Amino acid sequence: EEILAQLRENQKVVGRITQKVFDHEGVITDFAGDGALALWGWPTWLEEADLHPENAVATAEAIVKSLVDRVEYEHEHRRLMSPVRIGISTGRIAVGKTGPRQQWHISVFGSVANLGARLERIAKEFKVPVLLSAETVNRLRWEPKAGEPKRLFRKLCLIRPAGFERSYPIYELVLPLELGGSGATAKDVNTYEHALDFFLERRWDDCIDLLKTLPEADEPARWLLDRADIHRLRPPEANWEGEISSLMK
Fold first, then answer.
1. 230 contacts: CB under 8 Å, gap ≥ 6
2. What predicted TM-score, i.e. pTM, was given to this entire model?
3. Residue 150 — very low, low, confident or very high, per pLDDT cuts 50/70/90?
4. Quick one: which of 245, 196, 189, 186 has its CA closest to 224?
């Protein structure tokens, strides 16, 4: 009974995710439990390729809002936490059929696809709903309609995902607390990114002092503060370039 109930709940979640992807010109190539892999630009290519990251980010926002009833208060973190984790990566990938003729499915290949999958998992470390690659953020052209708030993005760190040889800057799509996001303000974002500069310059005490001024519910700030404290006690090698390794696969 419990398994069947969980399957029914998963179907509801997947149904909402699928509809939001379709609403924003995307396609879904695979499902895993209550998760899905969505693409833009395949099998048809929009004339304006710049709309692909726009649509992907708009979809992420819509999915988080559609699953707001799944947001729960966690006493450990003293704020609402969203169960949603989304990673968005932008670039060229290979798409094709895999499997025997009797039963094949669509698969995606390439570092861009792998990075998107890693970002989804890394979002769990930061306890935020949506993470984006720098390429995604750099290609966004979205402007808010009258009366709508402007989107806010925060550079979190340079991270080397599991299985990758290089590090990547990653960004948070800042969402309000009621949606399970960090609720960071524009001032908070500036403070955090200033602290990140100190982190990259190995100025651990300055980094920690700044991060301590941010709200306690700001999980990314707590995450970076912990890393800065570790490096303060055990400084990294001389050839360290600011990257943080993630074990999330």
1. none
2. 0.90
3. confident
4. 196
| CA-to-CA dists, residue 5 to 8, 10, 54, 124, 150, angstroms | 5, 9, 35, 25, 39
% pLDDT > 90, the chain: 64
CA 226/CA 207 separation, integer angstroms: 11
Q: Distance of CA 72 to CAs 25, 78, 132, 175, Å?
A: 30, 11, 23, 15
User: Which tokens go with 54?
Assistant: 């726009």
CB neighbours (10 Å) of residue 47?
A: 5
Q: Any idea which residue has 């912990």 for tokens? A: 226
DSSP of 216-248, one letter per residue?
TT-HHHHHHHHHHHHHHHSPPPTT--SEEE---
Per-residue pLDDT averaged across 102-129, rounded? 92
Contacts of 24 (CB under 8 A, 6+ apart): 55, 56, 58, 59, 62
163: pLDDT strictly greater than 70: yes
What pLDDT is recorded for position 80? Answer: 75
Residues with Cβ within 8 Å of residue 152, at least 6 apart in sequence: 173, 174, 184, 186, 189
Cα–Cα separations (whole angstroms), residue 61 to 88, 91, 239: 12, 20, 38
Return the H-helix or E-strand segment holding 60: helix 51-66
Helix (H) or strand (E) holding 205: helix 204-211
Q: What is the DSSP letter of 135?
A: H
Structure tokens, 15 = 């149904």
Residue 202 DSSP SS3:
coil
pLDDT recorded at residue 3 = 82
